[in-house]
Design brief:
alpha/beta
């Protein structure tokens, strides 16, 4: 660290008086604008901190901005955090994808972001702690492509049995090319094409992917290509990194031509090996797998010739037997008999056809008659006639209904007249007079005077006026009044134990 640090700079700033009174401003002090103050803070940071810092911490809130390509995240430890930014050019060089929770080493510088008035770390590179960046990037890409199904066996294309036109995609200066040619030169009828690409260093992955894409799109221009052989010799993970690029993997998947890879040594496995149609452990093995069927082609041709001659002899024998069977067939021994049979069959078919046509004609005539009847029934004259008949029926029904209605109204009128006569006031008064007469006659018949006229009397106790209904109400000495039809008689009770009246 150079000179005085940032904290030393803070110590040189005048402090407030210990009395708590505000420190008086220097007589020559002038107010600063926000921009000027920010510039002073930035100069202080630059002078107090090294130009390049190595910061360790856990990242969080990692986000890659879609339009600009810049990455924004936060680095933190147990007690502090700092905002970080990585520009697009630096983020493109990362071999792995940073994720929240990773512990990383960041290389960069601290500066002030004037628009927000805060300091942040401008990172130029990131390195995972405890794991190599290339190994981490390899595992991340492998998991991603495996999830998409790019490693699935059912997706891969079968290799041709006898490839005749082979394209070698590799560097012309590699030992792997010589190893492949040692194997393929044993078969002089093969047509080999070399597509030179760099297999190591910056830009190698892009050129390999471009070569695969070009061959898939333009292979018809140079004749059909049976297979592509992608090879490279051994090396470190960094040397082989061009074959672990996602761009190369997707170009291999999209290629319409079967691809076999022979990259590195037996212990080396790249992303290109995993997505290729066949993965050979070395370039030599890749060449041997590609021409393995050519090694036995002579024996296969000889055995095929033997099978072909045997099959031809069997076919000729079968054809002769069929020819003899045809010659012995009755059709060739008695051709006229066959002609007569066909004539008879023709007559039968003609009769059947005539009967069918007659039945069809009869059915069509029936249908035509039915259509004619329907047409007549729906003719305007028939419709008008039906409507006229319906109208006449409606008129008759209306007349009958009117007559019946008139008769019913007349009957109701007669009944109403009779009912009104029964309820006329004179009639009601006559009925009432008759009822009063009947009631009066009934009252007269029940009147006490009429009872007395029939020989009955009514006795009452003179003192109380109570009607005597029993001898038990009387005692000797009581005076009673007896009412007769023509007057009243008074008497005195002497003996209450007289004999009953009817004994």
């Amino acid at each position: 660290m150079s000179g005085a640090g940032f904290f030393d700079f803070q110590q040189r700033i005048p402090r407030r008086p210990p009395t708590g009174e505000p420190a008086s401003a220097p007589t020559d002090a002038r107010p600063l604008t926000v921009t000027q103050l920010t510039a002073k803070i930035e100069r202080a940071l630059k002078s107090g901190l090294p130009a390049t810092l190595l910061v360790k911490g856990e990242i969080s809130n990692y986000k890659a901005h879609g339009s600009s390509g810049h990455s924004y995240f936060t680095m933190k430890d147990a007690s502090a955090c700092i905002d970080c930014v990585m520009f697009r050019s630096d983020a493109a060089r990362l071999r792995f994808e940073p994720r929240d929770g990773m512990e990383l080493l960041a290389v960069g510088r601290v500066a002030v972001y004037a628009q927000r008035g805060r300091y942040q770390l401008y990172a130029t590179s990131l390195q995972p702690i405890g794991q190599d960046a290339l190994e981490l990037a390899f595992q991340q890409l492998r998991a991603k492509l495996e999830t998409e199904g790019l490693f699935a066996a059912e997706r891969k294309r079968p290799l041709p049995l006898y490839p005749a036109r082979i394209v070698l995609v590799t560097s012309s200066a590699t030992a792997a090319l010589q190893d492949v040619l040692k194997v393929l030169r044993r078969f002089p009828w093969l047509r080999l094409f070399l597509y030179h690409v760099p297999v190591q260093g910056d830009g190698a992955a892009a050129e390999i992917a471009a070569a695969i894409t070009y061959l898939g799109a333009r292979h018809a221009d140079v004749g059909t290509i049976d297979a592509i052989l992608l090879t490279r010799g051994g090396g470190s993970l960094e040397d082989l990194w061009a074959f672990n690029d996602e761009m190369v993997a997707r170009a291999l998947v999209a290629s319409p031509i079967p691809i076999i890879t022979g990259i590195g040594h037996e212990v080396d496995t790249s992303i290109a090996d995993l997505v290729a149609d066949y993965h050979a452990h070395t370039p030599t093995e890749a060449a041997q797998v590609l021409v393995q069927h050519w090694k036995t082609v002579k024996d296969a041709i000889e055995s095929g010739g033997i099978r072909l001659r045997r099959s031809l002899r069997a076919s000729i024998a079968t054809a002769r037997q069929r020819l003899l069977a045809i010659e012995r067939h009755e059709c060739f021994r008695r051709p006229l008999h066959r002609v007569n049979q066909l004539r008879q069959l023709l007559d039968d078919r003609q009769r059947a056809l005539s009967l069918t046509l007659a039945d069809r004609l009869r059915n069509e005539q029936y249908r035509l008659a039915d259509y004619r009847e329907r047409l007549d029934a729906h003719h305007p004259r028939a419709i008008v006639a039906r409507h006229r008949h319906q109208l006449a029926e409606a008129e008759r029904a209306l007349a009958n209904a009117a007559h019946y209605r008139l008769f019913a109204l007349r009957d109701r009128l007669q009944r109403a007249i009779v009912l009104m006569g029964d309820r006329h006031p004179k009639h009601q008064m006559r009925l009432m007079h008759e009822r009063l007469t009947q009631v009066q006659a009934r009252l007269n018949s029940l009147s006490p005077e009429n009872v007395l006229r029939r020989g009955y009397t009514i006795s009452t106790v003179k003192r109380t006026g109570v009607v005597v209904r029993s001898v038990n109400q009387l005692k000797p000495g009581d005076r009673i009044l007896t009412r007769l039809p023509d007057g009243t008689a008074e008497s005195t009770v002497e003996d209450g134990r007289q004999l009953p009246l009817f004994e």
